[in-house]
Amino acid sequence: MASETVVTLRGISLTYATGPFWDRHTNRAVDGVDLDIASGETVGLVGESGSGKTTLGRLCLGLLTPTTGEVTFEGLVLGTGSRLPPGVRAVVLQHPEWALNPRLKIGHSVAEPLVIQGRKSDPQRHARVARMLELVGLDPGFARRFPHEVSGGQRQRIAIARALITRPRFIVFDEAVNALDISMRTQVLNLIIDLQAEHRFAALFISHDLAATRYVSHRIAVMYAGRFVEVDSARRFHDRPCHPYSRALGDEEDFRLDGVPGDLSPEGCALARRCPLSIDRCHAEEPELRLVGNGYAACHRAEEVARS
Prior knowledge:
Shape: globular
Radius of gyration: 21 Å
Structural class: alpha/beta
Largest sheet: 8 strands, mixed
Low-confidence stretches: none
Distance between the termini: 37 Å
Strand content: 15-25%
Order of helices and strands: EEEHEEEHHHEHEHEEHHHEEH
CATH architecture of the largest domain: 3-Layer(aba) Sandwich
């Protein structure tokens, strides 16, 4: 049976002005993005810093309004005056201490979304907090501790428990494991996989860690300069990405990029100045995201990259 689509983006762009008022410049943080995320699915979003990943996550959550295009959540168009029920969306950040008040005990912080919703009596909330802590592999006694009394990995588990306590339909994990050491990172990734299998939430997993993203995701979208340059299943993406930028993110020697992430080509492909495979066509004609094999890539030489 096909999974229900939870989040849909169609033609999403977001522009903003920068610089002093006498010399304003328009920057396009997200540029013409289409995306569907289904119930029980994790879409991994990777790219260098400044590629637009976090902005896209905020658009999915309805925290930003797109300049053009439409974001829908289970068929409801966001930003049109319609309101979603509280607690159906959640976010887990790289630094869990940002979600936990250092002056409040962990149990209070985990229960806070329920308090805001006005749901459940005190005994019911306490029982729910205990259940959520157990669900993320922590003893319910952690509810009586303060954030500074637990490790970074435990704080991240607590942040996940807090995000899940309202049983959201959609969660954004924004660099949620990057601050953890390797062993703890693997534990938290496995936890996300197990929790999603049980609760069937849709997820956007934002990271610059390609290995972690492949591990936890069903599909991967690669973002550069506000656009998707490749979208494919995690399995096929692991076998052989077909965009030079994707290969460079994988630290492949033959696909080293020149310059810095903000060095965009004024015409043609935004990556042309940095790409070791660029040809005259790349500097003149912007590639469209097109079907290449079973995935999609925005590169004039994608077939060659896939074979290399």
